[in-house]
Amino acid sequence: MTATDPVANLQTLIRCPSVTPAEGGALSALDAMLSPLGFKVDKVKATEAGTLDVENLYARLGDAGPHLMFAGHTDVVPPGDEASWTHPPFAAEIAGGELFGRGAVDMKGGIACFVAAVARHIEKHGNPKGSISFLITGDEEGPSINGTIKLLQWAAARGERWDACLVGEPTNPDALGDMIKIGRRGSLSGKITVHGIQGHAAYPHLADNPVRGMLQLTSALMDPPFDNGTENFQPSNLEVTTVDVGNPATNVIPAKATASFNIRFNDTWTAETLRAEILRRLDAAAADGALRSGREAVRYDLVWADRPSHVFLTRNNALIASLSSAVEGITGKAPKLSTTGGTSDARFIKDYCPVVEFGLVGQTMHMIDERVAVSDLETLTQIYETFIARWFENAGA
């Protein structure tokens, strides 16, 4: 195997069954690719009480600035029913011009291509006039407690500093060249419990139905809209994701009702101002007697989920221009600069350096028969190789 071949790199990685939090041999395989290129490789085990240990990898080539980081994850989601796959999920078989396997798109494919791009750059030009590092976690698809956030802290404590980062997540909706992610919306979740009084459905005056109160509260969270969007972000959107009373009987008014919600929010808000707005809405709705005439205010509790994701937007021209021009130069398409989609580990990296995301087409990620076009692996490698050269030029190397 030569590290300049993204297909061989990806096949090696896919054949490592690294379902979160198992390392599965994937980080060792990556070490075997990077060490011969001159990278100093460290494996870092992260631990926290109540969670499973996770192995991570940090590798650096060079000891001077400017310093470009590539970030990603080798852990994958479970394959599901393996019998439903056209080709075994960890066999990395090629058929019809496509490479099948769990992680092909999300996101071992991006890692394989960046390794190949770095290897080609070194082969043609020698080591970059600066430093390149790989920050690779085994805990992105899981709780993300023992992954990127702790690996960043470990590296920063050793004196590591970065000038820019590229995350290789699958960002393109339909074809390579469609989209670069230059930011992400924030994410905030909570769980509401409405307290009522259990009773017979035929005697509602002797009970207090928490469902009525819950309807008032959840309606207030969903309407009116939180905002109309901003220049770079979609409107903030809240979804009620679960509602439950734990009541199998149709003639019993339940004692309590619970509901969970998640809001993806734009740069109109911070997590703190959004919490305040949600509490304001809930308190106003609790006092509304529309569905509970003559009753006291709805009695409710609200518990916030730990670790909200904060909204961010990258404005680093050298980074964005280097990547955009590389994408357009190879594909002929001017990529859209977007902040759509869910969260990623870029939410942690943005506290250390400017970060953007660009990777493969994401249509089959997490699906049965996850797969990538072999031709896309070569195209992405060429994009990354061009980006590396242009970023070091634009960063003043």
Protein traits:
397 residues, alpha+beta, 9 helices, 6-stranded mixed sheet, 29% helix, 4-stranded antiparallel sheet, elongated
Please characterize this protein's 3D structure:
It is a single chain. 29% of the residues lie in helices and 23% in strands. It is built from 9 helices and 19 strands. The chain has helices at residues 6-14, 26-34, 108-125, 148-157, 210-222, 271-287, 317-331, 346-349, 374-394, and strands spanning 40-46, 54-61, 67-73, 94-95, 98-100, 131-137, 164-167, 179-181, 183-184, 186-195, 199-200, 237-244, 252-253, 256-265, 299-304, 312-313, 336-338, 355-357, 371-373. The strands form 6 sheets. It has a 6-stranded mixed β-sheet with strand order 1-2-6-3-7-18, with helices on both faces. Strand 4 and strand 5 (98-100) form a beta hairpin. The model has no long low-confidence stretch (mean pLDDT 96).
Helices and strands, with pairings:
Blueprint lengths: L5 H9 L11 H9 L5 E7 L7 E8 L5 E7 L20 E2 L2 E3 L7 H18 L5 E7 L10 H10 L6 E4 L11 E3 L1 E2 L1 E10 L3 E2 L9 H13 L14 E8 L7 E2 L2 E10 L5 H17 L11 E6 L7 E2 L3 H15 L4 E3 L7 H4 L5 E3 L13 E3 H21 L3
Parallel strand pairs: 3-6, 3-7, 7-18, 8-17
Antiparallel strand pairs: 1-2, 2-6, 4-5, 5-19, 9-16, 10-14, 10-15, 11-13, 12-14
Helix pairs in contact: 1-2, 1-3, 3-9, 5-6, 7-9
Helical run tally: 9
Estimate the mean pLDDT confidence. 96
Radius of gyration: 24 Å
List the secondary-structure elements in sequence, H or E: HHEEEEEHEHEEEEEHEEEHEEHEHEEH
Across the major sheet, the strand order is 1-2-6-3-7-18
Shape: elongated
How many strand units? 19
How much of the polypeptide forms β-strand, as a percent range? 15-25%
Largest sheet: 6 strands, mixed
Straight-line N-to-C gap: 31 Å
**Helix proportion range:** 25-40%
Poorly predicted sequence stretches spanning 5 or more consecutive residues? none
Derived structural class: alpha+beta
